[in-house]
Amino acid sequence: MSTARTENPVILGLPNQNGQLRGSVKPAGAPGGGGGGPQQQLNQMKGTINNGNSQPAPTTNAVIKPGDDWKKNLKLPPKDMRMKTSDVTATKGNEFEDYCLKRELLMGIFEMGWEKPSPIQSSLFPALVIVPTRELALQVSQICIQVSKHMGGVKVMATTGGTNLRDDIMRLDETVHVVIATPGRILDLIKKGVAKVGQVQMIVLDEADKLLSQDFVVMMEEILGFLPKQRQILLYSATFPLSVQKFMVHFKPYEINLMEELTLKGVTQYYAYVTERQKVHCLNTLFSRLQINQSIIFCNSSQRVELLAKKISQLGYSCFYIHAKMRQEHRNRVFHDFRNGLCRNLVCTDLFTRGIDIQAVNVVINFDFPKLGETYLHRIGRSGRFGHLGLAINLITYDDRFNLKGIEEQLGTEIKPIPGIIDKSLYVAEYHSESGEEVKP
């Protein structure tokens, strides 16, 4: 069965735009149930997304004394046996212990299931963290909370637009060690004198290409102006547009570029040539033939997201949807529930492309093909996370033909015509090579 399908679908949520459309709900794991497949695979990586104002419950590990084998007391998740591509396995042979990190921090890292530093981590291991979207802020703050849970008293806070400003002001009245923020909100707090950044030693710009684009660059320059002169700026970006280059000319940073190795490995790309009227039928066919664990389906506008989500529900498949015009509490709930495997399919705009890491997603479908190579790269990167294999399928109309050719040339990749039967070893974990060798498309 490729995805959850039910008889007599019931549509919920369109009037209040909560983003969750369901067929007739069955218990998770039951035949036709909406949460069985992805939920089972998510058990080893499941985490609750909160608003960043609380730490997890204290662990019950015994006190570790000098000379003890502290690793034996760790609560490690099940080992991830899925195959990984060489862009994340080709490390320098370093271990996390090689970087003079506190033992309590190492404990949090290992209990996340991270065994060795990735190539990018081992290249620049050495705060204020700035991210472009609210969902990414919640994700990063949750990871910070989990990694620091053994460090005792580390306060992590996420602050984004669309949430209660008074709550943020109250939280900042006490010491906060790590702040994850969207640009507009942190700038507002700084100007109000609530967020005191005069002693911030490090600022991280995650998805720097977006943060230095026309949407945010003026705010970012203003934020940096409030920081002390002796501070470190870290830029992380999968693409290197002119906006980032201009910023680097001004600040003259040290550059580490792994892009030749990290672009599109592990993601097999196909296109299906269709008319606009054939798209929904083609999508229905894909649902019936593919072995989808979780899928993300991209549209080019908020209106088309809601229309498509309604169509998918009418076809009998449960789906969620998310876009920037929804109320923040509904966006948070959709993100939380989809990440925890409560639904197989998510329809969204490009809001959901930036850095969102949901390990169970193995299929990305561009219902509407993007115009820019940068957008395409970030979309299909939602599958094949951290070296695992994934599938990207693009529905191409006559008007998209030049964009398809241009993106292939820009990214130096090949998007092939979709075959009648797609080899499951290209995107389904249980069909990967048992030897652990990389499967090449």
Automatic annotation (TrEMBL):
Reaction catalysed by this enzyme: ATP + H2O = ADP + phosphate + H(+)
One Pfam family hit: Helicase_C
Biased composition, class Polar residues, residue ranges: 42-62
Keyword vocabulary terms for this entry: ATP-binding, Cytoplasm, Helicase, Hydrolase, Nucleotide-binding, RNA-binding
PROSITE patterns (alphabetical): DEAD_ATP_HELICASE (PS00039), HELICASE_ATP_BIND_1 (PS51192), HELICASE_CTER (PS51194), Q_MOTIF (PS51195)
Family membership noted in the UniProt record: Belongs to the DEAD box helicase family. DDX6/DHH1 subfamily.
UniProt-annotated location(s): Cytoplasm
Enzyme class: hydrolase
Gene3D superfamilies: P-loop containing nucleotide triphosphate hydrolases
Domain annotation Helicase C-terminal: ranges: 266-426
Cross-referenced CDD domains: SF2_C_DEAD
Residue interval(s) of motif Q motif: 94-122
Domain of life: Eukaryota
EC number(s) per entry: 3.6.4.13
Domain Helicase ATP-binding: 126-258
Region spans: Disordered: 1-78
Protein name: RNA helicase
